[in-house]
From TrEMBL:
The modification N6-(pyridoxal phosphate)lysine is found at residue 210. NCBIfam families: hisC. Its cofactor is pyridoxal 5'-phosphate. GO terms for molecular function: histidinol-phosphate transaminase activity; pyridoxal phosphate binding. Homodimer. Residues 46-345 form the Aminotransferase class I/classII large domain. Belongs to the class-II pyridoxal-phosphate-dependent aminotransferase family. Histidinol-phosphate aminotransferase subfamily. This is Histidinol-phosphate aminotransferase. It holds the Pfam family Aminotran_1_2. Pathway: Lipid metabolism; Amino-acid biosynthesis; L-histidine biosynthesis; L-histidine from 5-phospho-alpha-D-ribose 1-diphosphate: step 7/9. Keywords: Amino-acid biosynthesis, Aminotransferase, Histidine biosynthesis, Pyridoxal phosphate, Transferase.
Length: 355
């Protein structure tokens, strides 16, 4: 049976976390003289901003609990998912001794964070269908391997990782399995967060940056056992989510109807773009997508990327990623932006035809 206590870096088990003023007093009072705040107010435009934020984001967690069907004590809130990735590295990986397992092509921040913390990296590329190969992954794990990162829907490929293989990996991996679901809202596949009680070594990450349209507010979520979440709260900065973000996110979480409206538009536009891409001779392959972007393979990605830039259209050139030669990642824009993109692609095709 997996126990997070067996994987925590020894010195963190006895760590006494910073105790903030808001940790030591909870409740309501008429005069607050405990946190060395400026009681006269704030030059940032509001009296509320002179007070430190809730260090544990209780209001947001209560709303997420109802929305996701997850207990508040199973929720960690971070400054983007990147903070959760960083804290997980700190929590279980000894610098210079431990390693993580990545399945490229995948989200680049896993590797960056590992490099920052001097944590080793084992790589097992996804197969030609961008699916994990269980046997090869099992062969790579050693006693030093502490975390397996799975991105589903995957970035930059856009596809869901086969659920049966993911489950097999969670059950067999002797360490933390992190399933990054940044794009889960764009598909009808159930979230792995619904099975947290079944898998004590599972941590699921989601974000409000994509479907919810709040990338600028920087709020990511991690769902796991209360034991894992307790350790993340123990080592996080005391006030990692600011007052403005907490207020705006709390209000946004009440707008689930508007979220569904936006999702319908994005998914409809994704279908339209995929159909248009498949009809364009310059696009050699359109990969299946369960995200708010589509990966396409073209004749010459560098040339097409530069051409689109000249016309004011910015896409992402992913050609340097394993298995993604001559591939561009194209985000689903507004209907007008997508029209602009298709017009530019058609113009490029016409230009190619005359050469």
């Amino acid at each position: 049976m997996f126990s997070i206590d067996n994987f925590i870096r020894p010195h963190l088990k006895s760590l006494k976390p910073y105790s903030s003023a808001r940790d030591e007093f909870e409740g309501e009072a008429s005069v607050y003289l405990d946190a060395n705040e400026n009681n006269l107010g704030s030059l940032a435009g509001g009296v509320d901003y002179n007070r430190y934020p809730d260090p544990y984001q209780k209001t947001i967690k209560e709303k997420l609990s109802k929305l996701k069907g997850i207990r508040p004590e199973q929720i960690f809130i971070g400054n983007g998912s990147d903070e959760a990735i960083d804290l997980l590295m700190r929590l279980v990986c000894e610098p210079g001794r431990n390693e993580v397992l990545l399945l490229p092509p995948t989200y680049g921040m896993y590797e960056v964070s590992a490099n920052i913390h001097n944590v080793g990296i084992q790589r097992v590329p996804l197969d030609e269908h961008f699916q994990p190969v269980f046997e090869k992954i099992a062969e790579k794990q050693t006693e030093s391997t502490k975390i397996l990162f799975l991105c589903s829907p995957n970035n930059p490929t856009g596809n869901i990782l086969e659920p049966a293989t993911v489950e097999k990996l969670i059950r067999s991996f002797n360490g933390l399995v992190v399933v990054d679901e940044a794009y889960i809202d764009f598909t009808d596949i159930p979230s792995w967060s619904t099975r947290l009680d079944e898998f004590p070594n599972l941590l699921v990450m989601q974000t409000l940056s994509k479907a919810w349209g709040m990338a600028g507010l920087r709020l990511g979520m991690a769902f796991a056992s209360p034991e894992i979440i307790g350790y993340l709260n123990k080592i996080k900065p005391p006030y990692n989510i600011n007052v403005v973000t907490q207020e705006l996110v709390s209000a946004a979480l009440d707008k689930t109807a508007q979220l569904q409206d936006m999702l319908q538009v994005i998914i409809k536009e994704r279908t339209r773009l995929v159909e248009a891409f498949e009809a364009l001779p310059l696009i050699e392959k359109v990969y299946p997508s369960d995200a708010n972007f589509v990966l396409v393979q073209v004749h010459n990605a560098n040339e097409l990327y530069a051409y689109l830039l000249e016309r004011g259209v910015v896409v992402r050139n992913r050609s340097t990623q394993p298995g993604c030669a001559n591939c561009l990642r194209i985000t689903i824009g507004t209907p007008a932006e997508n029209d602009n993109l298709l017009e530019s692609l058609n113009a490029y095709s016409a230009q190619e035809a005359t050469l």
